[in-house]
UniProtKB/TrEMBL annotation:
It comes from Aeromonas hydrophila subsp. hydrophila (strain ATCC 7966 / DSM 30187 / BCRC 13018 / CCUG 14551 / JCM 1027 / KCTC 2358 / NCIMB 9240 / NCTC 8049). Belongs to the aldehyde dehydrogenase family. This is methylmalonate-semialdehyde dehydrogenase (CoA acylating). Residues 22-483 form the Aldehyde dehydrogenase domain. One of its GO terms (biological process) is L-valine catabolic process.
C-alpha cells in the first residue's frame, strides 16, 4: 500500500516542532469507521525515533523552564485563539476519523479549548508560599518548578479533548511533553501539535510519537520521562500505572467506567427520558462518562416502556448528517465485542426491549453500526452489568429505595461518574454525600467538571492521587521546592533581645 491509496497519506511523527517522517517498517492502518476506507497509515515509531523525540523535548525543556510564566502564558493565549479559529476544521477531521457526528466532534474540541484557557492563567496558579520568621531572622518560602519531560498516552474516544487535558498545562508549567495518541485516530492530535507550533510553542517542547504497546513501554522506561498521564482502558491503565510507579515515576491513570443514573419517582419525567437517551447512546456510548446503567427507584419503573419508545426514535448515521444522533463504533472489533455482550445479556435472561444488532444505515453497509439497545430486568450478576460495554447499550435495574440504589453503586468496582434525577433536595443531598463516586450530577446526567475544578474519577476508574486539569493537574506537573533562608550580618545591630519566656 502507498500514500495514494489513503485519504490522508502516511502520518508523520512530530519532532522539533515539525512533521518528522518515520523510517519505521511497521505501519498500522487507520480506517473510516463508517465505510472501512483507508484514511491513513500510522507508524510504530522506531526506538531511535523514540529516543530522538524524548531528547528533543528534554533539550527544549532546559531552555523553556527559564522562560517567565507570563511569556509561557502568551503562547497559550495564541494557542487558544488558533484552536478557536480552526475549531470547525478540527471538528470535521475528528468526525471523519472517529465517526462522531459533527455536534459531538465540536464538543470534543471545545472541551479541550477550555483547558487551554486554564493554561492561560498559569502564572497565578504556580505561585509559591512564603512565611517570614519561621525561626528568628529565618524565612521560609516555597517555589513551584517543572518536572522535566512528561508523557501522555491517550485513548481513541476524545482525540482532541484528552490530549488537550495534558500537554498545554504541562508545557505551561515549564515542562517538555511527549504525546503518544491512540493509533486508531492520530490525525486530530497531529493537527493539534501543528497548531501548537504555529502558536509559538518552542520547537521541540512537544513531540508526538505513534505506535502501540511496544512504543508505550519504551517511553515508560526512558529515564528522562518524569511523569505519566494515561487515559484508556482499565487493563492497559493498570499496566501503565504499575510500570511507571515501579520505575519510581509519578503517574495518573484514568480508566474504565460503569456510570449509574438513579431515577427517583418524584423526578421530572420528560427530563429523565430525554437525558437518559442522550447520556446512554450519545457518541455511540463511547464516553467514559456515558450512563450505562439506569436504576429506577420504586414507581419510576413505570417509565421504562416510554424510555423504550424514545430509544426507538434514535438513529445513528454518517458524521455530516444533521439527523444522525450518533455515529459508528470505532472499529469492527468494537462492534463484534458490543454485539457479543448484547447476545450475552439475552442469553443470561435480561429482557431486551430494543436490540441494536443488525443495524442498517443506508449507503454505509459495512460501517461499525450498532443501534440503540435497551435492556430491563438486568441483575448485578450479568455480564452486561459487570463489564464496561462502551457502546449504545443501556441496562435498566429496578430497586425499592434510594438506599438500595446507593448500595448497588457503591458495590460496583468503578467510580467515575453518577447522577440522580429527583425533585427532592433531601434525597439529592443524601445521594451526594453517601455515593462513593468521584463525579456526581444532580439532575445533570453527565457531570464532567469544568477546568476550574478537576476531573475526579474514584476507585477502579482512577489510579493515582492527583487528577486531570484544574489545580490538581498543576500540582501533578510540578514539583515544590521549599527554601529555609538565613543571612548573617554582624554589622547590623540586633536590637533588644525579644526572647519571650514561655511558661
Ligand atoms: P486502550 O486502553 O485500548 O488504549 C489507550 C492507549 O493505550 C492507546 O494510546 C493505546 O495505543 C495504548 N495501549 C494499548 N494497549 C497497550 C498496551 N498493552 N500497553 C501499553 N499501551 C497500550 O483504550 P481505548 O480503547 O483507546 O479507550 C477506551 C477506554 O478508555 C475505555 O475503557 C474508557 O472508559 C477509557 N476512558 C477513560 C476516561 C476517564 O477519564 N476515566 C476517559 C476516556 C476514556
Amino acid at each position: 500500500m502507498n500514500n495514494h491509496q489513503t485519504r490522508f497519506g502516511d502520518v508523520p511523527l512530530h519532532i522539533g516542532g515539525e512533521a518528522y517522517p518515520s523510517a519505521s517498517e511497521q505501519w498500522i492502518e487507520v480506517t473510516d469507521p463508517a465505510d472501512q476506507s483507508l484514511l491513513a497509515r500510522v507508524p510504530k515509531a522506531t526506538s531511535a525515533e523514540i529516543e530522538l523525540a524524548v531528547r528533543t523535548a528534554h533539550d527544549a525543556y532546559l531552555l523553556w523552564r527559564e522562560v517567565p510564566a507570563s511569556e509561557r502564558a502568551r503562547v497559550m493565549f495564541n494557542y487558544q485563539h488558533l484552536l478557536k479559529t480552526h475549531h470547525d476544521e478540527l471538528a470535521a477531521l475528528l468526525a471523519q476519523e472517529t465517526g462522531k457526528n459533527l455536534a459531538d466532534a465540536k464538543g470534543d474540541v471545545w472541551r479541550g479549548i477550555e483547558v487551554v484557557e486554564q493554561a492561560c492563567a498559569i502564572a497565578s496558579q504556580t505561585l509559591g508560599e512564603t512565611m517570614g520568621n519561621v525561626a528568628r531572622r529565618v524565612d521560609g518560602h516555597s517555589w513551584v518548578q517543572p518536572l522535566g519531560v512528561c508523557l501522555g498516552i491517550t485513548p481513541f474516544n476524545f482525540p482532541a479533548m484528552i490530549p488537550l487535558w495534558m500537554f498545554p498545562l504541562a508545557v505551561a508549567c515549564g515542562n517538555g511533553f511527549v504525546l503518544k495518541p491512540s493509533e486508531q485516530d492520530p490525525l486530530t492530535p497531529m493537527r493539534l501539535a501543528e497548531l501548537f507550533a504555529e502558536a509559538g510553542a518552542p520547537k521541540g517542547i512537544l513531540s508526538v510519537v505513534h505506535g502501540g504497546a511496544e512504543q508505550v513501554d519504551a517511553l515508560l522506561a526512558h529515564p528522562d520521562i518524569k511523569a505519566v498521564s494515561f487515559v484508556g482502558s482499565a487493563r492497559v491503565g493498570g499496566h501503565v500505572y504499575r510500570s511507571a510507579t515501579s520505575q519510581l515515576k509519578r503517574a495518573q491513570c484514568f480508566v474504565g467506567a460503569k456510570n449509574h443514573m438513579v431515577i427517583m419517582p418524584d423526578a421530572n419525567k420528560a427530563q429523565v427520558l430525554s437525558n437518559l437517551v442522550g447520556a446512554g447512546v450519545g457518541a455511540a456510548g463511547q464516553r467514559c462518562m456515558a450512563i450505562s446503567v439506569a436504576v429506577f427507584v420504586g414507581s419510576a419503573r413505570e417509565w421504562i416502556p416510554e424510555l423504550a419508545a424514545e430509544f426507538a426514535k434514535v438513529k445513528p448515521g454518517i458524521w455530516h448528517d444533521p439527523e444522525a444522533a450518533y455515529g459508528p463504533l470505532i472499529s469492527p472489533e468494537a462492534k463484534v465485542r458490543v454485539e457479543g455482550l448484547i447476545e450475552a445479556g439475552i442469553a443470561e435472561g435480561a429482557e431486551c426491549l430494543l436490540d441494536g444488532r443488525f443495524c442498517d444505515v443506508p449507503g454505509y453497509p459495512v460501517g461499525n453500526w450498532v443501534g440503540p439497545t435497551l435492556f430491563r430486568g438486568v441483575t448485578p450478576e450479568m455480564r452486561i452489568y459487570q463489564e464496561e460495554i462502551f457502546g449504545p447499550v443501556l441496562a435498566c435495574l429496578e430497586v425499592a429505595s434510594l438506599d438500595e440504589a446507593l448500595a448497588l453503586i457503591n458495590d460496583n468496582p468503578y467510580g467515575n461518574g453518577t447522577s440522580i434525577f429527583t425533585s427532592c433536595g433531601a434525597a439529592a443531598r443524601k445521594f451526594r454525600h453517601e455515593v462513593a463516586v468521584g463525579q456526581v450530577g444532580i439532575n445533570v446526567p453527565i457531570p464532567v467538571p469544568l477546568p476550574f475544578f478537576s476531573f475526579t474519577g474514584w476507585r477502579g476508574s482512577f489510579y493515582g492521587d492527583l487528577h486531570a486539569y484544574g489545580k490538581q493537574a498543576v500540582r501533578f506537573y510540578t514539583e515544590t521546592k521549599t527554601v529555609t533562608e538565613r543571612w548573617f550580618d554582624e554589622d547590623i545591630p540586633s536590637g533588644p533581645n525579644m526572647t519571650i519566656q514561655l511558661r
